[in-house]
Amino acid sequence: MKRALTLLALLVWAHPVEAQLSERIDIEGLLYVTYLNGEVGGEERNAFSIDRAYVTTRVRVLPKLQGRVTIDTRQDLEGDGLGDMEVRLKYAYAKYTFGDAGPVRGFAVEGGIVHMVWLDFEEHMDLYRMRDPMFMERSGLFNSADIGITFSGALGESLGEEYRDRVSSSYAARHGSFAVGVYNGGGYHAVERNQDKVVQGRLTLRPLPERLPGLQVSGLAILGKGNADGEAGELPDWRTYNLFASYQHARGAVTAQYAWGEGNQRGDWTEPADATDATGFSGLSLFGEARLAGGWRAIGGFDRFERTPGASDRAFDRLHAGIGYDLGSQNILILDWDRREWDDAALDTDTRVRVVMQLKF
Fold first, then answer.
1. Is 188 within a domain?
2. How far apart are CA 359 and CA 308, in angstroms?
């Protein structure tokens, strides 16, 4: 009898504790289940795969203090663990929200393995990261996270409830948003090879919040050195600039961007005769999504990228198109065709078809 009463008391005590934990902790998952057929990097591929698998835990530690840890799982395609599903940290940071200050709303700082200033924003304009990384990341410029610190905030109050419900609740401030940060420079899955720090900034403005609330224009600047070995005066520059326009609507979205600069995050875009001399580049990308009746989606895009290290032609055009079906809450099944053709005829053209299931929970 005493044991039964003790067990009952523990259950009664545990119930409010469980409720409190559920209010403080959120666990989310994102999974890309993929079948690919075609050429990738000049090699034939015909395989099923788990392209990526993310598990994110967010904890509300204090009213203004949050923590986030995201585990990123992908298959090792090289090295000693060939074929293994490797687990690494994508994000691991503390976030403190200061609150509102004049026109800035939700001013916050992240410290740790944090979002860099650009890709989280673009991936909320173009919802199809499932088909491949965004234009600048896929072209080899940089990835999405690094060890450092990021300040961010919204400009003005949020747009109306109808816009946030029917179009997007992300980056939905009336006048835009911003993010600035300082990082080691190597990215979240690279060792920092030098003592340089990289500064990045993004500014987004919504010029016509009343007439065209879905229209935004953005600018990006990245200033630093590539993640190469060497002393301060021996490192290749990494400078990236990007102008970006996006329009979101309940029936779809379109984006256009132009990027230019020299060097890249890895520090390996250099002239063959001088590893300290970063190679210049430029590129443009167009993307469109149509949200059709009954949950159907149609997407398509065009990329152009140019780089000429040592006068070698590394320019390419990429076309892609796809059709998908949204089962609800962005759980999407998509059939995607992609073709990259190099200007240099000696480089193989890649053409591939992918079927991807994006599972979010």
1. yes
2. 39
Residue type, 304: R
The per-residue pLDDT for 150 is: 98
CATH of residue 31's domain is 2.40.160.10
DSSP 8-state secondary structure symbol assigned to residue 328: S
Number of domains in the chain: 1
Could you report the per-residue pLDDT of 123-173, keeping only the tens digit for each? 999 999 999 999 999 999 999 999 999 999 999 999 999 999 999 999 999
How many Å apart are CA 188 and CA 213, to the nearest integer?
34
pTM above 0.85, yes or no: yes
Q: Domain of residue 203: give its range.
A: 26-360
Contact 194, 230 (CB under 8 A): yes
> Is 283 among the domain residues?
yes
What distances in angstroms separate CA 129 from CA 46, 349, 358, one per listed residue? 21, 22, 10
Q: What percentage of the chain has pLDDT greater than the value 90? A: 86
Round to whole Å and give the CA distance between 39 and 351.
5
- Classify residue 16: in a domain, yes or no: no
Instruction: Taking the CA atoms of 81, 86, 87 and 90 in sequence, report the sign of the dihedral they define.
Output: positive
